[in-house]
Amino acid sequence: MASNPDDFDCNKCRWGRHCDKDNPAPNDIFEIKVPGYEIRQNTCFLTEYDRDSDFWLRQFSAYNSGFLLKKGGAGDQPAPYMQAMRLIKWLGTQE
Questions:
Q1: Which of 16, 34, 77, 80 has the greatest CB tally within 10 Å of its CB?
Q2: pTM value?
Q3: Which distant-in-sequence residues (6+ apart) come within 8 Å of 23 by Cβ?
Q4: Are residues 45 and 2 in the same domain?
């Protein structure tokens, strides 16, 4: 969503306004597959974008520019942080 905000412009919705659980699509409109993990969703991801999502995307921007969360190298970073960075990077290659 952050990398392609025009795809999530409610005024240009191409998924039939299946915004949330009150109006789900009859089938999955989003599917994300990562080895060992799969997300299928019949509602828009925009309603789930929150402060936590924004935090991780900002962290990824810094990570992608060569700045890590903690001092040291990749081995000194918290495992969840590194997993999140790899997942966001991988998702960015799936367009």
A1: 77
A2: 0.55
A3: 17, 43
A4: yes
